[in-house]
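To whoever is covering the structure queue this week,

Two jobs came back overnight. Logging them here so there's a record in the thread.

Job A:
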Amino acid sequence: MLTVSLPGLTSPMQAGVQLDIVAKFRNGGVELDIVTVVDSEVEASKSKVALLGIATPLRSSFSFRREEWVALIELWSKAVKSQSDSWKTIGSMIETETSHASVLTISAGPGIKFVINSPGKGLVTYVLSKDELARFAGTLYRVKEFFHDSAAGDGT
């Protein structure tokens, strides 16, 4: 895991924020990034966030707390089991805790398709090839452990 420190960076990231790029996936000129963020300046229950970002070169991301990440894993599992030669929408999620909520839609077909529809930026799409499914699944569970580490003391 690559750790990037951002000292002295101003809004939206603050000095007490640690950003970890967990994985990068590339398909043509499009990139899908999985990132974890720890903000030491907020209460512990809200200090950890994961991001799924797509750069087309337009950049858009979708933020997750622990519960949303578990829902993403469930959608992912359904998508993996539903692959075919044609695209089928598996489900969508609406971003929480933001005034400009994006929608993440996952589709199954000859791979897994992620579409982020951001109110301010429009649509960005990434197609994860079948060759990358295992590595992506491993990334999902590494981030789940990132959230689990913060939940150790809260009874979940």
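Job B:
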Amino acid sequence: MENMSIHDWTSQTDDPVNDEVRNNIIDYLNRIRVPIPSNNYDLYLKLEVTGKDVLDIGICAHTMERMRSPNWIHNIIRNNAKSAMGIDIIKDLIQQLQKDGLDVAVCDATSDEDLGRQFDVVHVGDVLEHVDNPVALMKFCGRHLRPGGKIIARTPNAHCFNYIHLQRKYGTEKSNLEHMFYICPIHAMELARRSKMRLTRYLTLYPGKLSIRGIARFLKYTLSFKFRHALAEFLTKPESYSTILVFEFKKTGLVHRFGHS
């Protein structure tokens, strides 16, 4: 049985740098990390939303051209879910989607607004790192989540080997100008705690190693003179290999405390 205190470190200590508690959390994070199926986020998402009622937060992909593409994430959700509602704060794009007959609305997902509906899955794709208040975003998700439902939150992985290389190349982070921060797995644990959630598992892309996929990618990158990427198929661990982190959260009744520094 899972030790529920792992989700609320303040039930064990007042010290946020207590080594024993942090090591227990690290052990938990290593246990709940799993591969993204076939290293394909779109496939994973299809499996998670098929036959379910889904709320998709932050659906606008900056331009209508991108949102006409079959690879637009909200299209993948719409084409597989039982029902799909999308929200965003970009009013003109949402209005165009409404004219196309999509179930979408203008809504700030860090607000106290209630959509009057609940969902089996709340998808938050590349949104967490953009918002002023990620706890408010998580609480919004929780209000719209049915019992037993899950939040799927995808976010960039700051510790990806190639991102670290680019930091060294430029002398500092060369990031999306709208990004506020990165969220590592241990930060996701704290985000969950403050939002009365549990981080139940997280997913990463995995290096191919000696699999057919790994050897194929090694040869592809080698022939393209991308030696750093080629070696990564064999030498990196999942946490350093993956460009993304995908967190899965569920609601809990834990009471949390603030004020630790």
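Note for Job B: The chain has eleven helices and eight strands.

Please reply-all if you pick these up so we don't duplicate work.
Q.
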